[in-house]
Amino acid sequence: MAEAADFQGTSASPARRWLRRTGTLLASAPLLAGLLQLPAATPADASGQESPQAASGAGSVSVAVDSLTPSAPTEGDTVSVTGTVTNNGKQPVTDAHVDLRVGPSLETRSSIDALAKKSDDVQGPAGEAVGGKYTEKFSKLTPGVAEPFNISVPVDELDLGQDGVYQVAVALSGETAAQPWDQVLGIQRTFLPWQPEEAGTKTKTTFLWPLVSDVHMTAETGSNEQQTPVFSNDDLAEEISPGGRLDQMVSLGKSLDLTWVIDPDLLASVDAMTKNYQVRGEDGTTTSGRSQAVAKQWLSELQQAVAGKEVVALPFGDPDLASLAHNGTSVTGSLSHLKEATDAVDNTVPTILHMKPSTDFAWPVDGAVDPSIMKVATSAGADKVIARSDSLQDNLSYTPSAARPIGGGTTAVVADARMSTAFQGDLTQASASTLAVQRFLAQSLTLGLQTGKQRSVVVAPQRTPSVSQAQAMAEALGALQGGNWSESEDLTAAAKAKPDPAANRKVPPASAYPPSLSKQELPRAAFEQIAKTQKNLDNFKVILTDQSRVVTPFGRAMNREMSTSWRGRGVAALGYRDDVKSYLDGLIDGVKLIKKSETKLSGRSATIPVTVQNNLVQGVEHLKLRLTSQNPTRLKIGGNAYEEQRVAVNGGHSQSVKFTTSANANGRAKVEAQLYTEDGQTYGEPVTFDVKVTEVTPTVMLVIGGGVLLLVLAGFRMYTQRKRAAAREAAEDTAGEADDDVDNPVGAPQNPEAPGDRLKEESGAGSRADAPQQPSDPAPDTAAESADPPGTGERVDR
């Protein structure tokens, strides 16, 4: 009935081709009758052994189809096939010729897969040769030499019938010295979609165009105001340079109708390259990046390419949802990083691309899902999960629409597995790329011919296609959008399409998750290390005067630590996490206590200084310094076992904090200094030092007191002696004057050196500047300061 219906709707040209094929069959009837009268097979043939013709010469020539244009021909077109044939045997091939052979149409998608696996099998069916002038001949094929061919055939000569996918084979036939008869020595099959007229019901096709890359930026930034970023390598510059992978993705995608799927980390990284940035070399040193112009050009082209198109933004860093679901949810705080990565989109994509993206979609690796992945994928706000049909499978004879509700307000958007995986593998050879394109188109047309109902199909290719893969994708998508059986649709529209009630809505169990993908996941240890880094960051940020300089770069770095790009690169992932941790530890260590040597304390009380050093650019505050005596019976700090003081230090400075101490006994006391944050968390390593106490005892005080008393008494005795001597001198002076009046009359000469004057000098009544000190005079209170260097111990102020 299906064939009859097709014949009723056939145009004049297909009807003519049907009559031609019928005549050919009738003409070949006598030949078939003659073949039936041939003798029975020889015993060798009956035993299953190959005949001489099908033996050593079969497959000795490789055929490569480098191009087939147009990929999806219509009425009036000419199909051109180019490629090469290479004699891989040891003998020359003579009387060789290449021709096209058209086989029957392939009715199912599985038959396309089966033919693709045996595309170069010379033993399989090859179809009817076009022959005639549409054959290219070679007089001789020398071993090891590739010969090009180019065959162009009007589509009317291919005898294509009803709409569908046809097998087209390029076959090389010839003779060898060992087998001197014409035989097929090499063949390459491909697919030719045939839909010459507009389909009554077109398939709506959504093609995701991913802009995702590996992790390139580190957590390290410069100490300047701009916080110059540091890149772990210069690979991103190569990707966005002309001819690079990401440059090709933008150049090829801008002329196609598709949905862009972008990792905001990629945009942030390229945007950082438009300014000053540093690149770390293999030896650990950094040099200035030089790709500012390239980065600006790439972003400008991307802005133009996405204008008016749908853009879906993944969470920042493209976190591995499956790894998080299987190994990270049991680690506290892991899910919060997914929420932060989703929130970071608003500060990245609209600023750089000047448009608002959709954040409603989550995309697990290869679309493989299980209940835990679905739960994690929707935990950060997404209500649509991009799955794949080889994970969420349907037991139907046709391909249903992509969207299907799975409960809880979540929609699974199931991408077609066959079309999504069509461009994987090595497509650097033109022949491999051509086969991938034709196979993709064949799957699409066969899918569209399955039912008369319109369906929405989603294609989700690999996240990071190579340049050759991207070129093949663009070629196929261009042919599809120029064909007659498909029309483009945005991902949001595909998710809202009416779901097929017969489609599977049950998420597969965890046991069905592919083991090959499980082996590539981030381990639990990775999430534990991320959690430890987050804890250290939380303790560190509270002391900073400008937290954003640290919180933002480290927050983004931890998002990158969960990236899908680490799959299968466990060693590199661990190295990145270690680098982030080491850099944060270095910043934390920038605020620390200066180590102290043994401190000497004499007397009952003194002050002990402890120095806090801040090597950061910004100031720190909200810190407490606690000084604790580990032997409070001998030495107390501030009257207790410990004392705390608040600390605030400007960037690049240090500050000494003084603590009052009191001693009760002689000997050594161990003291510990420790920084704390205001919430009571320890900060940094403690500093421990010894305090040597030399206490002044009561006996020593009595001795000192007695000495002072003796000095006072001696001074009093000297004072009384001097007073008496002065009185005697005054009396003697009076008596002398009386004698002078008697012995020396008026006008008599005076004695130049009176005895009284000599007495005054001897008694000290005159100037005492040169008089020697008495043995009882006290020594000076403070000794002269020594210029010698201090000892190993510190002497504190009292």
TrEMBL record:
Membrane recorded as keyword: yes
Top-level lineage group:
Bacteria
Q: Where is the composition biased (Low complexity)?
A: 74-89, 493-502, 769-784
Would the keyword Transmembrane turn up in this protein's UniProt record? Answer: yes
Q: Which UniProt keywords apply?
A: Membrane, Transmembrane, Transmembrane helix
A biological process (GO) of this protein is: carbohydrate metabolic process
Which residue ranges traverse the bilayer? 700-719
- InterPro entries hit by this protein: DUF6049 (IPR046112), Ig-like_fold (IPR013783), TonB_box_CS (IPR010916)
Q: Where is the composition biased (Acidic residues)?
A: 732-743
Q: Where is this region: Disordered?
A: 43-62, 67-96, 488-518, 730-798
What is an example of a Pfam family matching this protein? DUF6049
Protein's name in the database: Membrane protein
